[in-house]
Amino acid sequence: MKQFPRWLSRGVARLDYGLVLPLLARLPRWLARPLWILRGCINYAMDWDWRTLSLGHGYVREATQHAMAQLRLQAKEGTLPRRLTLRRFVCMSREEVEAARLTHLDRKTIQARITGLEPLLQARDRQQGVVLMTAHFDSLYVGLAALAEAGLTVNLMATRLTDDAMVPPAISRHFATKAVALNRLLAPGRVMHLEDSMRVFVSALRRGEIVVIACDGPSTSQDRAQPVEFLGARRLMASGPQFLAKAGHAPLALYTCQEGPGGHFTVEVTEPTSLEEGGLQRAYTALERHLLAHPWQWWAADLYRTYVAAEAKGA
Question: PANTHER family from the xrefs (predicted)?
Fold first, then answer.
């Protein structure tokens, strides 16, 4: 496992997240694109990621390559895992530039085609909240601003993990700046932290609002997770979506946003479906379709090797 001296991690973070990302965010897209590709290639070569810079050792590249090898087999993808992993680092670089660009973004100017908007508007009109499950996949944040511009109240579940003392200050500031920008873009929705209270999310759902929660993490408790068929196995995934659906009496749907040529975005939201009608499984089936079609756009693919098989429960 590659170790990074603390002074190096902090120095790289200060240069990259403190100077390079803000600069790239201000450049025209045509000029920023080759630079974010170069940045992604450097991060791949050095195994740099905000988490590896925080922990002081590299692991994301190896874990991602393992995931890409597995996804490649399921998707019958001909590209080598190493190349898919490189493309993941480039995708992550672009996403971080897009996140830094949120500060200067006017949501009225977003060019997005939204599939599945009407059911969300109908749920809003009858004051029914919706749990929007998502993954760390392609352009996560821009699409949420597009949903807010379409008339929805969108709340994003976030974590205070990036404020930890282990995280270099430049990286913490990057995430804090992103949260401020998202609060402006999502208003009257907002970014809320799971560590503060889960009740605020349940209350938002009961008011007929949307709560967006990442669902590509593993279950932290085998007793609370409902098994789902996902990526070739019956797995115990994060239990947050089903908890919110039950507590908020809300259906579930999957949200993805992908960037196309020229800064045009495609937002896809599946049909909101209750837990009782198989909403959780439907969301993971849709997510699997996206991940197998574009594995390199899953910039949290390193999570794959942490997944728990349902058969292991009670073993």
Answer: LIPID A BIOSYNTHESIS LAUROYL ACYLTRANSFERASE, PHOSPHATIDYLINOSITOL MANNOSIDE ACYLTRANSFERASE
Q: 223: burial class by Cβ within 10 Å (0-12, 13-18, 19+)?
A: exposed
Q: 209 Cβ partners below 8 Å, 6+ apart? A: 124, 129, 152, 153, 154, 155, 189
Q: Identify the domain containing residue 235 by its residue range.
A: 2-312
Per-residue pLDDT tens for 158-172? Answer: 999 999 999 999 999
Q: Is the distance from CB of 37 to CB of 93 less than 8 angstroms?
A: yes
Domain count of the chain? 1
**What's the predicted TM-score (pTM) here?**
0.94
Residues contacting residue 158 through CB under 8 Å, at least 6 positions apart: 179, 191, 192, 193, 194
Answer yes or no: are the C-beta atoms of 9 and 54 closer than 8 Å.
yes
Which of 185, 174, 187 is closest to 100 using CA atoms? 174
Residue pair 210/251 in contact (Cβ under 8 Å)? The answer is no
Q: What are phi and psi of 214, to 5 degrees?
A: -70, 140
**What span, in angstroms and rounded, lies between the C-alpha atoms of 242 and 225?**
8
pLDDT (tens digit, 9 = 90+) per residue, 138-148? 999 999 999 99
